[in-house]
Amino acid sequence: MTGGRVAYSEVCTDDELLSWSRGYCRDVRRERGVDVRFDLVEWEVSHRAKRRAAAVKRPQLPEARVGERYDWDALDGAEGRPLPCTLSLTREAFEAFDRAEWESTLRHELVHVEQYQRDGTTDHGPAFRERAAALDTAVHCQAFADAKYVLTCATCGGLVARRYRECPLVRERERYRSDCCGATLRLE
């Protein structure tokens, strides 16, 4: 046990995963100045997720915009504070990642929680990218499961998207263009 929580290498149960992850996130808040109220964050472990390592589940709020402080006082039931959100951690991702990648995933999700609690919403836009860089984390979390469909740029071969089931992007890929070269998409 370290600071009242099980050592990372000893995490076996979902409760231990939650405890270790909560403790790490509290350390990040203290050491890196992340403005998050953990009393308004619920935690869970997902055994079903295949595409996301973790996620912040939150209500969709009217008029919420990233970069504009949300008026929590105007929302019924908020009592001047953000409504709770849920940080859902994917067990399979934890098992697939090394400690550095899991810590990066948690810092990524903390950016989402911080944006949500301040602005009432969150995205992966410029403000997110800037904050992610300050916390030394990626804008998109590493994949931990093999995608059924991998779409690449037909010109440079760069990754465009991973999809785990058939969707319009997969079915109608000839209608889309890559952001890198503006080329058609190739299914790998």
User: Span between N and C termini?
Assistant: 45 Å
Q: Taking all residues together, what is the mean pLDDT?
A: 91
By CATH, the architecture of the largest domain is named 2-Layer Sandwich
Uncertain runs with pLDDT below 50, 5 residues or more? none
- Beta-strand segment tally: 6
**Largest β-sheet summary:** 3 strands, mixed
CATH fold-type name of the largest domain: Zincin-like
Question: How many separate structural domains?
Answer: 2
Radius of gyration: 18 Å
Q: Would you identify the CATH H-level superfamily of the largest domain?
A: Metalloproteases ("zincins"), catalytic domain
CATH class designation of the largest domain? Alpha Beta
- The fraction of residues in strands falls at 15-25%
Q: Which overall shape is indicated by the principal axes computed on the Cα atoms?
A: globular
Query: How much helicity do the residues have?
Result: 25-40%
Q: Largest beta sheet: what is the strand line-up?
A: 1-3-2
Structural class: alpha+beta
Helix-strand pattern: HEEEHHHEEHE
Number of helices: 5
